[in-house]
Amino acid sequence: MTVAVPPPDTVRILGERLAAGAAENDRTGAFPHRHIAALHEAGLLALTVPQRLGGGGAGLARAAQTVGAIGTGDPAAALVLAMTLLQHGLIHREGTPWPRALADAVGREAVARGALINALRVEPDLGTPARGGLPATIAHRDGAGWRITGRKIYSTGAPGLAYGLVFARTDEPEPRVGNWLVPFDAPGLRIEESWDHLGLRASGSHDVVFEDVAVPGDHAVDLRPPEGWRRPDPLQQAWSCTLLAALYDGVARAAQAWFVHFLNTRAPGSLGAPLASLPRFHEAVGENERLFSVNARLVASLATETDGGHPPAPQEAGFVKLTVTENAIQAVQRVSELVGNAALSRKNPLERHLRDVLCARIHWPQGDAVRSAAGRAALGA
């Protein structure tokens, strides 16, 4: 079986088609199983799986374009898609610590059945490990294999995942820290439906609990001394920042499209013409278009450099993610302020776009971390 990569226009149309279901899933908080199935049918879940495994063989630029297009219709599904594309963009690269046979098996499952994978890193006490500290999740040696015990929170896509890449530490006298590939049908793994947030409500980012979950020895795919995790991986940072930037830019573009339609169809009696005829709205729409143009160039530049084998320093990728997402937030907030009460009415999609785009500030790397790291470097601290 080989994935046929759909052209960009087909992906754009699919994103538009998912919008109606996204609104309903947002209201109920239901995981978008049907939308994920539609992404699989379109070949998108295996987009970044190598062609030798039957995948699309796409790089970061095409992945970002796809996530952005799906994000205009269903940001929750687009986030789940982004996490899977990210992992396949990393585990099949040259120099990966993954056993080739294991990475190939995961890739083939994405092609055949749309198997989702995501990294599970955040914990109740630790928070995000990117800010330092050892995970409380423990991997204990059991003969040739391992047993995993712990809890992960904010596990995006949990109801649909086939695999979790679990960040844990060993219980050895000198602990190692790393990632274990855990199948989600393993005995002892359970999902606690804890996700009830303001935005991206359908992303299924629930708690995942591991109670003495057995995994094979070769599923410990990247173990290092704790200090080996202190510096971010430029490739991982580039993929993550690019895809998140594209996702939230897509949300803002959906808000802009709704705003343009609103201005062209809303004609107050006192004006006798559509709101689109007023100069102040010309300026507002134009300012958002400026932000989108800057976003497109930033995302394309970061993706092109990365696909060319030259991912920038993690700090540069963080700048792109921060700038693009803040531009997206600014664009949606501008639209909301100008529309007025209708912007916050739940019968219109704009209030959902506003809630969703604000989630950009929560995704790592967060603004304070990006600025602080850059400041320390500039000051030689």
Question: Could you estimate the helical fraction of the residues in percent?
Answer: 40-55%
Kindly report the CATH topology of the largest domain.
Butyryl-CoA Dehydrogenase, subunit A, domain 3
Shape from CA axes? globular
- With helices defined by DSSP (H or I, 4 residues minimum), what is the helix count? 11
Q: State the distance separating the first and last CA atoms.
A: 53 Å
CATH superfamily of the largest domain: Butyryl-CoA Dehydrogenase, subunit A, domain 3
Q: How many β-strands, per DSSP? A: 8
Task: Offer a few descriptive terms.
381 residues; alpha+beta; Butyryl-Coa Dehydrogenase, subunit A, domain 1; Butyryl-CoA Dehydrogenase, subunit A, domain 2; Butyryl-CoA Dehydrogenase, subunit A, domain 3; 3 domains; 11 helices; 8 strands
Could you walk me through the main structural features you see in this protein, from its secondary elements to its overall organization?
By secondary structure, the chain is α+β, with helices and mostly antiparallel strands. 48% of the residues lie in helices and 15% in strands. Strands 1, 2, 3, 4, 5, 6, 7 and 8 form an 8-stranded mixed beta sheet that branches. The mean pLDDT is 96.
